[in-house]
């Protein structure tokens, strides 16, 4: 039976996910947006023939039991934003799949929000899950790449992404083109093993990965800072040029030490690329016989969409409540066997 | 509770696996060998302190219910060899874990043998599973690396291995040092989607991978042939030199086309390495946004052991019968959370 989805958020990822789901034969019966594309047909919005689904303002949304199997949220990165329409969906029995980076492994980050969502989802016998690139690549692929070794001392991940592919609004905030000193949010913080965590995409990845391979909760250190240009770099958003030593991106570095003494390092670099640079994901595994896993090229945006679309089929049978990707089997391509 | 294992086969992989399991805190209560090391203490055999387990001749083995949780077979590559002691173990309720390459996905290869083993295992409420490098790397890691894409047209695997690390007996058979024409088993065969398969490590990998990602049974073509030297190559087994155009290894190439039109290619190269060559595993994924996964260096032997040791913890809860790695969750490092 064809799965029936409703959609929240029609930015780059939302539109791409809508195309992917339609190609998989999933029915999309509703689409909601804050302002953009309201009143347009979803098919037209994603560059295809009309499908008879008009984009409605999100303020008009009302969750009703049975209206969909899965509600897909491609809205913001904030976990607590799920307390709105997403929680209403779950309470009405509609499973929720979100690409919010902070929904990947949220119990250690915002436990009260997590508990409210969990209870609502259990009342509705529905599942709330955060997924995306981090699910397929950083947790499951990386976790499976530990299966060959019995002597693991260190995992060091490196995710190298093209800033120009993010939306302009994401990039402006981070001081693109400004002098290094002006980077608005540079900071270093730590969190003990039993402490709640600061907002951090990579921090949640490391917490999830530790859980996945059965390690205890780690002590974490977070660093967020600017990446500066080595040479003159074109700014694709403004057409200006950015001078050397001025900001062309950001990096987040999270370091974890588990109670078992295993070290994890996650580095997320997002910057304007120089000629010849491409996105990649690399992970080095330390131990008696160290090795590296490398994905080239990587596709930050497309893989976020791909992981989302390939998770939809897992939702109807997933356990009720707020779960994480660690609770589910490894994701896989579903283009043929998946939801139809 | 500590898992209790018995061991069959004390070649390179068997010895390495015994070390790995002891390091994981698994109890080894028996070890059986055709001839080598009979009468020695297993601890001594693996280069450690004695552990009070004498290696017994395999002819003396008698399966008794409750004697172990898992029997580990590091003996031959042949699936039907499991009809002996392995089947007796399963029938007595002892789970069987084998590194036989042809036990990875055997239902399409020797269905009658598979059925006999399956029935025996079900009578004993035990599990029989083939695992190894192919499990962790070629099925689960490769399968998980499809999770990012919704447009997959082709998977092309390349496993590049150092022949000198295999046992001498494996290599002699393949005509090392002989002229190209003398390669004893060069052949090309095909198997329709509904046909039983010839013996082929890579063929079973492709069948397993298709199953894992939900593709139908493919039509397969198999090629097995020699790899010849480009320059003078030392033969580490004999100390001789092998002249150019003479055999330094073998390659197996299996090509599959699924009913959905997806192409899979598996290439297994095992040869004497020139200076600077290292083992690797690479896999290219075709589609609208193609990418490559690469593991460098790879460790053929160590990873076979590692995948075996990391699977032991899955055995007690695995479903009864002859199963495959496709029926189990993705494997992962168990050094800390695993069997103790």
Automatic annotation (TrEMBL), chains A, B:
Gene3D superfamilies: NAD(P)-binding Rossmann-like Domain (3.40.50.720). It comes from Roseovarius indicus. InterPro entries: NAD(P)-bd_dom_sf (IPR036291). It comes from the Bacteria. CDD domains: nat-AmDH_N_like. This is Dihydrodipicolinate reductase.
């Amino acid at each position: 039976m064809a799965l029936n989805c409703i959609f929240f958020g029609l930015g780059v990822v939302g539109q791409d996910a809508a195309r992917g789901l339609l190609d998989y034969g999933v029915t999309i019966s509703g689409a909601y947006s804050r302002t953009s594309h309201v009143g347009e047909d979803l098919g037209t919005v994603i560059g295809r023939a009309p499908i008879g689904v008009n984009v409605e303002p999100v303020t008009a949304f009302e969750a009703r039991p049975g209206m969909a199997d899965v509600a897909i949220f491609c809205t913001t990165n904030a976990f607590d934003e799920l307390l709105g329409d997403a929680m209403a969906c779950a309470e009405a029995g509609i499973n929720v799949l979100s690409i919010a980076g902070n929904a990947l492994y949220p119990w250690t980050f915002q436990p009260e929000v997590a508990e409210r969502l969990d209870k609502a989802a259990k009342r509705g016998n529905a599942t709330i899950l955060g997924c995306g690139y981090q699910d397929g690549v950083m947790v499951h692929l990386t976790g499976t790449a530990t299966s060959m070794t019995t002597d693991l001392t260190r995992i060091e991940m490196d995710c190298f992404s093209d800033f120009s592919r993010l939306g302009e609004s994401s990039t402006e905030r981070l001081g693109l083109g400004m002098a290094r000193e002006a980077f608005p949010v540079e900071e270093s913080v730590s969190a003990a093993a039993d402490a709640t965590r600061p907002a951090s995409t990579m921090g949640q990845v490391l917490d999830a990965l530790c859980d996945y391979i059965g390690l205890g909760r780690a002590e974490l250190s977070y660093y967020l800072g600017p990446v500066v240009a080595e040479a003159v770099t074109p700014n694709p958003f403004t057409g200006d040029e950015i001078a050397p030593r001025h900001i062309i991106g950001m990096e987040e570095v999270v370091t974890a030490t588990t109670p078992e003494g295993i070290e994890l390092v996650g580095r997320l670099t997002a910057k304007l690329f120089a000629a010849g640079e491409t996105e990649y994901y690399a992970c080095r595994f330390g131990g008696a016989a160290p090795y590296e896993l490398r994905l080239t090229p990587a596709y930050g945006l497309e893989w976020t969409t791909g992981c989302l679309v390939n998770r939809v089929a897992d939702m109807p049978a997933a356990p009720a409540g707020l779960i994480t990707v660690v609770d589910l089997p490894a994701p896989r391509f579903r283009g043929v066997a998946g939801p139809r």
